[in-house]
TrEMBL record:
Stretches assigned to the ABC transmembrane type-1 domain: 62-257
Organism: Bordetella genomosp. 5
Protein's UniProt name: Putrescine ABC transporter permease PotI
UniProt keyword Cytoplasm present: no
Similarity-based family: Belongs to the binding-protein-dependent transport system permease family. CysTW subfamily.
Keywords: Cell membrane, Membrane, Transmembrane, Transmembrane helix, Transport
Length: 267
């Protein structure tokens, strides 16, 4: 029975990889297509990469999305780490249910509702305080942090609960303060979870189109918004070239991170 079961597992794994990666590989292949029709191959060419780097609107949108995603991931990781630590270590304090509900709300509330709520909040703030003057990078960043913070808290909470507390307790017995223990013991132990949470937040922010549509202003168009607006008029090969560069960049980062982790574990 081992032979058929092994073959069946191999077939299922192969079909899964085929389903996941063939569309990505075809997109990368057609980014080198000379034809302006993305579904018709006429020959190898780098013309669409040249057109991409000459497309100022697309490059501005990509740069804005990268900045917002990096700032969002950093802020969400910092806030979400503290929130997850409180959930995992502080027990059921007074108001714990409200705290948990407010923290988990962005996970269950539809993004459309969240986007409308944040938009109305900024409109009221602008009327009462005169700030922010207009929707833009800051308002998009606030919306993305609100969403991503909840995901970070879930990741960090799970990691801290599964962590062995003996090292922290030993440090406390030796006279270290709780804050010193957190930064010297807890943070290094949950570093992989922090990296995962940061990357998850970066991806969620970079991929978001709903919140950005509500919270963006004139001159602040993110990359997903730009791509969606162009797809309505027909998919252009420059988008394939941009997606290929994204895939190569992400793949390189993942490979380097895996190599570093393997080297660290073997040393």
């Amino acid at each position: 029975m081992k032979g058929p079961n092994k073959s069946l597992r191999g077939l299922a794994l192969g079909l899964g990889y085929f389903f996941l990666y063939v569309p990505i590989l075809s997109l990368m292949a057609f980014s080198f297509n000379d034809s302006p029709v993305v579904t018709s191959w006429t020959g190898f060419s780098l013309r669409w990469y040249s057109a991409l780097f000459a497309d100022d609107a697309l490059l501005r949108a990509a740069w804005l999305s990268f900045k917002v995603a990096a700032l969002t991931a950093t802020a969400a990781t910092i806030i979400g780490t503290w929130a997850g630590y409180v959930l995992a270590r502080m027990g059921r304090f007074r108001g714990f249910g409200l705290y948990l509900g407010m923290l988990s709300a962005p996970l269950v509330i539809p993004e459309v509702v969240l986007g409308i709520s944040l938009l109305l909040m900024f409109v009221e703030m602008r009327g009462l305080l005169g700030w922010p003057e207009q929707n833009g990078m800051f308002t998009i960043w606030v919306g993305h942090v609100t969403l991503c913070m909840a995901f970070v808290a879930v990741v960090i909470q799970s990691r801290i609960r599964d962590m062995d507390r003996s090292l922290e307790e030993a440090a406390l017995d030796l006279g270290a303060t709780p804050l010193r223990v957190f930064f010297s013991i807890t943070l290094p132990l949950i570093a992989p979870a922090l990296a995962s949470a940061w990357l998850l937040s970066f991806t969620l922010s970079l991929d978001d189109v709903v919140l950005a549509s509500f919270l963006s202003g004139p001159g602040f168009t993110t990359l997903p918004m730009e791509v969606f607006s162009r797809v309505r008029l027909g998919l252009k090969p420059e988008v394939n070239a941009l997606a290929t560069l994204f895939i190569l960049a992400v793949g390189t980062c993942v490979i380097l991170a895996n190599r570093l982790q393997v080297r660290k574990e073997s040393s």
